């Protein structure tokens, strides 16, 4: 009986050993490559998801830029030759200070600065007047709907109470026409 019990134990142990070897072979030959493939595909999927998120955020930024540009495009589009653009800039600035009680000492048109897609028009103005009128001029340039910007300001007090002398560099950006050289 002892030999019968031993042979049945040996058969069970041999069967278990065969199962373990078969399981190890199956794991190594079939399951492990499938797990590696799944891990690779998950990493690739996560990479593609990140790329998609970046593309979505780029599209949102592009849409925002286009929205802002569509609002300012009428203000910066080229309306004629350089002389016409400078004339329009001078007229816009003149309309702003003509309503105020300031004395214009000089108006100097500066050379046009060309950049890659736009040109910068500039006018240097020297004026004297009551501080309230000079500040009103600054305010009207900065908040006006004509895309003007004050790049430099120099204010000096005068001997007369509440009067100041101001020097301003006022610029306007104008988009270059495609294929235009001036």
Key phrases:
182 residues; alpha+beta; Alpha-Beta Plaits; rod-shaped
Describe, in short, the structure shown.
By secondary structure, the chain is an alpha+beta fold. It contains three helices and four strands. It is rod-shaped, with a radius of gyration of 39 Å.
Please explain how this structure is put together:
By secondary structure, this protein is an alpha+beta fold. It folds into two domains: 74 residues; 94 residues, Ribosomal protein S6/Translation elongation factor EF1B (Alpha-Beta Plaits), CATH 3.30.70.60. The chain is 58% helix and 27% strand. The protein has three helices and four strands, in the order ααββαββ. A four-stranded antiparallel beta sheet has the order 1-2-4-3. A hairpin with a 3-residue loop joins strand 1 and strand 2. The longest helix has 75 residues. It is rod-shaped. The mean pLDDT is 84.
* Second CATH tier, the architecture of the largest domain: 2-Layer Sandwich
Q: Alpha-carbon distance between the termini?
A: 113 Å
Helix content: 55-70%
Q: Number of helical runs?
A: 3
Fourth CATH level, the homologous superfamily of the largest domain? Ribosomal protein S6/Translation elongation factor EF1B
Kindly report the CATH topology of the largest domain: Alpha-Beta Plaits
List low-confidence stretches. Answer: none
Largest sheet: 4 strands, antiparallel
Count of distinct structural domains: 2
Q: Write down how many β-strands occur, each being a DSSP E stretch of 2 or more residues.
A: 4
- In terms of DSSP E residues, the strand content is 25-35%
- Sketch the topology as an H/E string, one letter per element: HHEEHEE
Order of strands in the sheet with most strands: 1-2-4-3
| Structural class assignment | alpha+beta
Round the Cα radius of gyration to an integer and report it.
39 Å
